Amino acid sequence: MSRNNKITLSVMVLLGIAIFAFSIRDIKLSVLIADFFSINFWWILVAFLCIGIYLFIEAVITKSLVSDRVEKFTFKDAIRVPLVEQLFNGITPFSSGGQPGQLFVMMQTGIDGGRASSVLLIKFVVYQAMIVVNFFISLVIGFHYVATKLQLLALFVLFGFLIHLGVIVGLLLIMYVPKFTKHISKLLFKPVKWFVKDEKYDSMLTTLLSKIDNLYEESVRIGRKPSLLLKVAGLTFIQLLFYYLIPYFIMLSLGYMNANVIMVTSLHVMIVMIISLFPIPGGSGGAEFSFESLFSSYITNNSKLVLAMILWRIITYYFGMFAGVVALVMKPDKVED
Predict the structure, then answer these.
(1) How far apart are CA 337 and CA 115, in angstroms?
(2) Could you give the CA distance from residue 277 to residue 159 in angstroms, rounded to a whole number?
(3) Is the C-alpha dihedral spanning 24, 27, 33, 36 positive or negative?
(4) In this structure, are residues 231 and 244 in contact, taking their beta carbons and an 8 Å threshold?
(5) Residue 99's pLDDT is what?
(6) Residue 35 in domain
(7) Which of 203, 247, 263, 327 is most buried, by the most CB atoms less than 10 A from its CB?
């Protein structure tokens, strides 16, 4: 990790502590401690198991895509990819550092940069597609609840959906009509010239067009292997399902045994979509506010609501970041590219 990344990680941890402290400002510490020790930690273990399975499945997906073209890519190196992704997603605005972080650890193993980029692009396309599918299902199930209770958050939900839908449409255009996409990209990219020097602009445009070509070539290759694509799509759908189930098991741990698993899962899908709109790394502040706002009707005890939010953030955000730090310092194996 660079010095700047270490500083950012430290800042995000301190920010998280500050947000947690602010959340419990009106709660008696004795009540919070009593609620903590009343938790059924077996359900918390299940919630941690969910995030573990989520990361494990992504490692399986990565290994499947890489091993299709590269020999001796070990599972140890495959599991490093999603863990490092969690770290850099967590310390960069809009999770923008996840892709470069994954590319870095894959290239550490000796995989060619272009090939690694192609694999990551396909993985990203499938992941975005499954997010849109899950989100559409959650809209059908839970949007009425959000629109009734919190109209402002409902607008964020719809805006987030449109952004992700736009991303997947753009990616599909690249995959199936690359010439048209490159033409549109050149037109949309022209305003960048107003802010950077000509050399920098030409370099950025060349990189963009190269990525479009890479994604198109990789999509053609994967298209010849529909069974591999279906496998990756199916695994990604299951991967996301485990992630979205985490708040449900947290609620069970706090004694809310009658929680509706479908509604709770749908609300979590919407929260994840809202978080993606906040520019602060990890959606800090917005994530906590969204969770408390959407789950306050289900967890009516304020102390338990805050406790649920803290547990959720530890499992879905901080656990992955610190696991990513460990993965980053692991020595990679070498492949035969």
Answers:
(1) 9
(2) 8
(3) negative
(4) no
(5) 87
(6) yes
(7) 247
Q: Is residue 202 part of a domain?
A: yes
pTM (two decimals): 0.88
Position 192 in a domain: yes
Give the three-class secondary structure for 44. helix
Number of domains observed in the structure of the chain: 1
Separation CA 177–CA 170 (nearest Å): 10
The confidence score (pLDDT) of residue 297 equals 81
Q: Is 336 within a domain?
A: no
| Cα–chain center distance at 84 | 12
Q: Which range of residues forms the domain containing residue 31?
A: 3-329
Phi and psi for 285 in degrees, rounded to 5?
Answer: 95, -60
8 A C-beta contact, residue 301 and residue 311: no
**Residue tagged 């009540």 (tokens):** 31
DSSP string, 176-241: H-HHHHHHHHHHHHGGGGGTS-HHHHHHHHHHHHHHHHHHHHHHHHHHT-HHHHHHHHHHHHHHHH
CB 314 within 8 A of CB 329: no
